[in-house]
């Protein structure tokens, strides 16, 4: 099972669509905020894919939740934009929230800096930004759930 993880599209629907096209095997798309309208558009464009999303700090007026949890292929995901957990000051609050929710995988955005890590049984990923704002690099993440375990990767948008 492949999961496409995106964040911080900031109106760049073209880059979001390119990421989806570059990962045709992805059955689930998780948008981590600051792009609520673009993520909503995906639900109509790709009705055969599950699209999960949360609200970012720039998603003004959105009624989306601040965080979400989802079990996929037996693995529990905790996902959030990150601003409510002070992601720009470090990952401690995010990791604590993920652990409180019994997550196997923590996904967050907000910082625009791509990272993938593993800490005491918890896979951690920030896919960076598809808009390229702040860092000049357009990135997204993929999470593969295989019989051997979980694999996370950061991908550059081509």
Model description:
Its cofactor is a divalent metal cation. This protein has 158 residues and is α/β, with parallel strands linked by helices. The protein is 18% helix and 36% strand. It contains three helices and ten strands. The protein has helices spanning 13-22, 36-45, 92-100; strands spanning 2-6, 26-31, 50-53, 67-72, 75-80, 105-108, 115-119, 122-126, 139-146, 149-156. The chain has a five-stranded mixed sheet, covered by helices on one side. It has a five-stranded mixed sheet with strand order 4-5-6-8-7, covered by helices on one side. The mean pLDDT is 95.
Order of strands, widest sheet: 3-2-1-9-10
* Helix-strand category: alpha/beta
Number of DSSP E strands:
10
Mean pLDDT: 95
CATH topology: Purple Acid Phosphatase, chain A, domain 2
Rg over CA atoms, rounded to whole Å, is 14 Å
Poorly predicted tracts of residues: none
CATH architecture: 4-Layer Sandwich
Topology pattern, helix = H, strand = E: EHEHEEEHEEEEE
Tally of alpha and pi helices: 3
Instruction: Give the tally of structural domains.
Output: 1
């Amino acid at each position: 099972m492949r999961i496409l993880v995106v964040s911080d599209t900031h109106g760049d629907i073209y880059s979001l669509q390119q990421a989806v096209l570059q990962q045709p095997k992805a059955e689930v798309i998780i948008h981590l905020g600051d792009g609520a309208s673009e993520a909503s558009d995906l639900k109509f464009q790709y009705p055969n894919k599950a699209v999960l999303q949360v609200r970012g700090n720039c998603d003004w007026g959105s009624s989306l939740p601040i965080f979400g949890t989802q079990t996929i292929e037996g693995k529990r995901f905790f996902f959030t934009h990150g601003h409510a957990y002070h992601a720009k000051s470090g990952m401690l609050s995010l990791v604590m929230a993920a652990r409180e929710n019994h997550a196997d995988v923590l996904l967050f955005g907000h910082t625009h800096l791509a990272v993938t890590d593993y800490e005491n049984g918890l896979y951690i990923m920030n896919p960076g930004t598809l808009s390229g704002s702040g860092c000049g690099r357009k990135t997204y993440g993929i999470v593969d759930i295989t019989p051997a375990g979980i694999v996370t990767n950061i991908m550059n948008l081509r």
